[in-house]
Each structure stands twice: as structure tokens, then as C-alpha cells.
Amino acid sequence: MARESWRDSLNDDEGGRGGFLRRVFGEGDNPMTWAVPIYRAWGILVTLHIGFLIYIVLELLRAIPDGAAGIGYRAVFLFCLFGMVLLHEYGHCFACRKIGGEADRIMMWPLGGLASCLPPHGWKPSLITTIGGPAVNAVLIVPLGLVVLLTTRELGAVVFNPFALYDADGPIAQIGAGSSSTLELYTKVLLFQAYFTNWMLLVFNVVVPMYPMDGGRILHAVLWRRMGEHRASDISATVGLVAAMVLVIAGLVTGKTILAAIGFLGGLTCYFEKRRVKMMGGDDPLIAASAAATGPDPAEEREKKRAQKEHEERLKAEAEIDRILEKISKSGMDSLTRKEKKTLESVSRTTESQ
Predict the structure, then answer these.
(1) Which three-class secondary structure string do you get for 299-332?
(2) Distance, CA of 83 to CA of 57 (rounded, Å)
(3) What is the DSSP letter of 334?
(4) Helix 285-294 and helix 257-280, axial crossing angle in degrees, nearest 10
């Protein structure tokens, strides 16, 4: 079956309350892995980070002053955010598996999702795995847009200013004005939020060249093709640090705390990536050998091929000399052809010069 039961997904190896807590918190030393398992489908375990649970509670509490309508709108937004991000991460996983890689876990957390993908080593598998996520969002744009247009009958709900969602003449206001009941209103808002969130995931993920965003990974894969993995990682991390600074400043200036938080997280990720790259380029022979294995230099590859070709030609020449000498021992010098004599003379001159 593609989908296993919730209980089976929680009780893989350990049972009881203690086993559940160990699956959520692990050894407790890495907060980034603190996540509650939700379900398993297609061999992929989906977990919800503790931080995401806290984020959901805080967002709903923040909407209480706006009454039931405010809580309803916030709940719809969170539901759409979760669904669109989950589909995006499934795109990464299925793309990775399609090219022979492994993908078995998705973790949902406050700033998006993290798919545990292990594609075959190389810039092309890495690029395909990365593009798999945005490709899902790109495919969904047209059908979601058509559904929103047919449901709301408002062109402004499909073509709109993303920075003016809640203005008096914004898409939310237009949807509200055209709704005759609460159920109709929430249905339209749900579809619109799915459409809007899908657009934002596609644009923001691809345009921002910063880890762990897809834009940073796409930049890394493109540079990897030209200059090797090690150098590409260093440049991508540097570009990501600049992008992170821009996001943090923009978030602080505009009062968008989520934007500043994304920039801060991305900056940390890029910083640690630069640290990793620096370590990979150190004097430790084991680390250096690992770096060379992960990112072969094109010049070194050409030199290896040239040396291999020379080695094969030398073996071929030696085999020819052995054949000529065996022919002389059996039939004498007079049995040699003109070409065989020239070959023998050439080898004799080379030996004398050495």
C-alpha cells in the first residue's frame, strides 16, 4: 500500500511513550530534528517540527483580537501554507527517486519544508532534484488560477498586487464583497490562499539565491558544472550571505518579521556552508581526497586521460616488440618486413639515447 497507518508510522522500531518521545526529540542535542511524525506515504515519512506547532498556536492566538473571522482567515492561510509546501517537498522527493536517488523523509517547519533527498552525485542530478519542487508549483499555477477565476468570478483574484492583499480594493476585499454566505466566503478564500501561496513558493524559492532556498541550490548546481563542486559551494554560500543581508534589512525596514527571520536563517545556513567548504579545502589529506572525489577538476581529468592513453600506447608498443623479437628468433632478421625493421630501429635508438 502507498499509505501506512498513523500508528505504524509512529511505531517503526520502538513502542510506548518513551519510544514516541525518542522519535520526536532524538538524543535532545539537536533542536533542528525535534519533530512529531504525522504519517508515512509512498515510503516517505512526514514529520511536523515542534517549532511549526508553536508557530501555528501563536498565529491563531494573534488572530483572536479580530474575532472568529480573523481566526478563520488565519486557519485557512496556515492550512494552505502546509498543503502547498508539502506538495513542493514531494516534488523534490519524487524527482530525486526518478533519477535513482533516495528520499524518505519530509520535515515541515515554520519557514517551509525540508526534504531529505540523496540524489546520485553530480551537478545534473542535484539540479533535477532541486527543480522538482518548483516544478510542482509551476504545474499548479494554471489549474488553481482557473478554479479561483471560475469560483470568484473576479479577475482581481487571479491578477493582483501581492503587497496589497488586504487593501480596500485588494483581492480579499473583492472576494468578500462577492460572497453571499460564510461558507462561500471561506471556500473562495481557501482557493485564493492556495493559489497565492503556490505563487509565492514558486517565485520566492527560485528568485532568492540563498541556502536553503531552491534558488541557492540551483545556483550551486549551475556553477558546479563549470568549476567543480568545491568552488561552486563557496561562491554560492557567499552570494547567499549577501541575499540574506538584503532580506534581513528589508524585513526590518518594512516590519515583515517573517522576511527578516528567513534572511537570518538563510544567513546562518550559508555561513555554516562556507565553514564546511573551508574545512574541505584544508591540509588534511583525507579531507582533501574527499573534496577531490566530490568535485573533480576538469584539467585534472584531462591529464588523467592523457596519461592513460600514453600508458596504453606504451603497452601496445612493447607487445609489438615482443612479437618482432619472437619472429627473429624463429625465422631470422631476413623474415622482417620493412615496417618491422623500422620499428626495431626506432626502439634501438630510443634505448641508446637513454
Answers:
(1) HHHHHHHHHHHHHHHHHHHHHHHHHHHHHHHHHC
(2) 17
(3) G
(4) 120
Binned at pLDDT 50, 70 and 90, residue 350 comes out as: low
The confidence score (pLDDT) of residue 248 equals 93
Least confident span in 79-83, 112-116, 173-177, 237-241 = 173-177
CA angle 172, 173, 177 (to 5 degrees): 120
Residue 19: pLDDT band with limits 50, 70, 90: low
Higher per-residue pLDDT: 279 or 4: 279
Instruction: Supply the pTM of this predicted model.
Output: 0.67
CA–CA distance, 24 with 34 (Å, rounded to integer): 5
Q: How far apart are CA 346 and CA 288, in angstroms?
A: 43
Kindly report whether the peptide bond that precedes residue 162 is cis, defined as omega within 30 degrees of 0: no
Query: Are 220 and 233 within 8 A, CB to CB?
Result: yes
Contact 148, 193 (CB under 8 A): no
d(CA 126, CA 326) in angstroms, rounded, equals: 55
**Own/partner pairs, 210-213, CB within 8 angstroms, 24+ separation:** 210/239, 210/240, 210/241, 210/243, 210/244, 210/247, 210/263, 210/266, 210/267, 210/269, 210/270, 211/236, 211/237, 211/240, 211/266, 211/269, 211/270, 211/273, 212/114, 212/265, 212/266, 212/269, 213/266
Closest by CA to 33, choosing from 18, 19, 45, 48, is 48
DSSP readout, 176-190?
A: HHT-SSHHHHHHHHH
Q: If pLDDT is split at 50, 70 and 90, which confidence band does 210 have? A: very high
Asked if 76 and 190 touch (Cβ cutoff 8 Å), the reply is yes
More confident: 156 or 298: 156
One-letter amino acid identity for 39?
Y
Rounded Cα distance, 183 and 281, in Å: 60
Q: Which amino acid is at 182?
A: T
Which of these, 27, 26, 23, 19, lies nearest to 36 by C-alpha position? 23
What is the three-state SS of 93-118? HHHHHHCCCEEEEEEEECCEEEEEEE
